[in-house]
Amino acid sequence: MKRGELVQLLETCCSQISISQLHSQFLKVGLADDSFIATKLSSFYANYASIKYARKLFEETPRRTVWLWNSVLRSYCGEREWEETLFLFRQMIIEAVSAEKKPDNFTVSIALKSCAGLHGLRLGRMIHGFAKKEKLDMDMFVGSALIELYSKCGQMNDSGKVFMEYRKPDVVLWTSMVTGYEQNGCPEEALAFFSRMAVSERVIPDPVTLVTAASACAKLSDFKRGSSVHGVVIRQGLDTKLSLANSLLNLYAKTGSIKNAANWFRAMPNKDIISWSSLVACYADNGAGTNALDLFNEMIDKGIKPNSVTVVSALQACAATSNLKEGAKIHSLAVDYGFELDISVATALIDMYMKCLSPENAVDLFKRMPKKDVISWAALLSGYAQNGMANTSMGIFCNMLSEGTRPDAVAMVKILAACSELGILQQAACLHGFVIKTGFNSNVFVGASLIELYAKCSSIDNAENIFKGMTDKDVVTWSSMIAAYGLHGKGEEALKLFHHMVNNSDVKPNNITFLSVLSACSHAGLIKEGIDMFNMMLNEFQLKPNAEHYGIMVDLLGRMGELDMAMDIINHMPVPVEPHVWGALLGACRIHQNMKMGEIAAMNLFSLDPDHAGYYILLSNIYAVDENWHNVAKLRRVVKENRLKKIQGQSVVEVKNEAHSFVAADRLHAESDLTYEVLRKLEANMREECCVPQVQIEEILQAPVKGVQNLKSQSRSSPV
DNA sequence: GTAAGTGTTC
């Protein structure tokens, strides 16, 4: 066969089999090193077959043209093999002795894209310099790769400089800028660019631009601007395009109600795994864990294979609803699909097991993970704190540091929260030092956590200093300081700070701020002020109180003996009454010995949360004071027969810079006998002073120590 | 003769 005929055959080849046969034909007639044919073949392999064939062909071709180089570079770049791409690029430069092999605009754009993939700013800048020298930098493809490179490295200024070089940037260049801002956490700037492009410059946005714009609106929770993006999508007849429909679904998920998102999802003519994952995530994020799991199961029943992202969201739903059974089911599903040890899946599993109070499973998984990142470490250490083992959290934090993982702001917040469970000032100060050293002290979330930490370590002065030292105070900072005063019973100070914030700063109070100020009023017994604040929240700031706000109001009124008012609030709550609200009323009934109302609260609690032993015990305490021994016995029997366990509170004391943790009736500590001996002496002293302790030591010691397995006493020296 | 920027997650 002649060369021409073979080339024509090559053009019409459409399967890997036929191209392989043709390839062997070329080899037979000695045409395989014909540079045109080699490039064509390589391009075919890169597009439709495996990268291995392309590479083999490349190696076997003695006369490599720029085209051949480009086509093999493109295959590696397409497979996201950034390092290999750049390795080959370097080879090419080395071999570029003749002008024929000089990298062209195509080569440069691929190399830049690989640098972007690796966040390799230094090499990227070098290649940028090379492109300038070779006068390749005005090519649009090179330009978009440069913008992408600088954006991925967080250098939006440089992206802007590249963009400014073009007199008439095309839609892709504009879009690169929009996505650059959007992915660098600047959705506002992204939308500004988008409107400059679409309105001032009359460049018609394409699907990619619109996806990014919708995503920026989602990040801002800006429903209004999101709707106008949706309008553009409809006007261009693009609303059935899957990627756009998905980004609009995400927009509804992040801005509107669950209902909007669900309706949009059901109306979508085509759905892919991303559509399903988005709605599962939407349910999971918005407190609708059961819906998330239903949807996930619907998907499985329909035979649609979830990916790791879907599984992560479904696991989040299990974690939020403490659904260990479903969580374990999804775990085995992840094993079947082969992504159990995928870093994000494994981390979500750790989080789920920790929140379902099954730390053993979490630790087992963590140990088996081949790769861990800062998020997995953070899940582990905050999980320990959630399971009452804050001491272990501190140790995990040290392990993380010694294994060379740098904490991010989230991990910092979590370790500070774990430390605040311990309430040990010494360790708080150590972590504070670490925060300063690592430069996290300017982060608003870390600052707020420090305020909370010091407040919980009984050092309100330090909390105040942190607060005063924060240059950027946002609503979280103010709320934390208000909460700190509340924790210390300083209701007046909390109110003063609240008013100072409302009158003298630009920061507006939110739901959390009111939670802090209401709880401060409750702790300080400021009943009138609390009611005023609650009304202010409703009327002046038009905020919708949630079950927690109502719980605090019930607590506040209940503590002050206003049980009828508290009951009235419960009866008029516009949101579902959660167990803790009834719990607050029941607690108040115990203080003020109101048996009738206590019974109502308890009955509601028993039906809402039948496994919580604490509520049975609270009611039985009310009966006991009333000497209603018959009912006391009845309740104790229920607890015993249903094997209900009271979640044990763990206490920690600091002795000579060492933290010692213990639980009630704990006899596992090495110095246990001595501790109880001292306690008996103290009790005797109290009796001499005519004080009768509420609970007697012998009573505590008779209590079973079951259910304390993983809370065994531990003593270790300060780790930080 | 090859070609760009985007959507779901811990």
Structure report:
- The protein is an all-alpha fold and 720 residues long.
- The chain has a domain at 666-717.
- It is 70% helix and 2% strand.
- The protein contains 40 helices and 3 strands.
- It has a 3-stranded antiparallel beta sheet with strand order 1-2-3, with no helix packed on it.
- Helix 13 runs parallel beside helix 15.
- Residues 704-720 have low confidence and may be disordered.
- The chain binds one DNA strand of 10 nucleotides through helix 3, helix 5, helix 7, helix 9 and helix 11.
What are the main properties of this structure?
720 residues; mainly alpha; 3 strands; 2% strand; DNA-binding
Approximately what portion of the residues adopt beta-strand conformation?
under 5%
| Relative helix content | over 70%
Distance between the termini: 77 Å
What average pLDDT do the residues reach?
88
Question: What is the makeup of the main sheet?
Answer: 3 strands, antiparallel
Number of helices: 40
Principal-axis shape: elongated
Task: Work out the number of β strands.
Answer: 3
Unreliable residue stretches: 704-720
The radius of gyration is: 32 Å
The class by helix and strand makeup works out as mainly alpha
Biggest β-sheet: strands ordered side by side in the sheet? 1-2-3
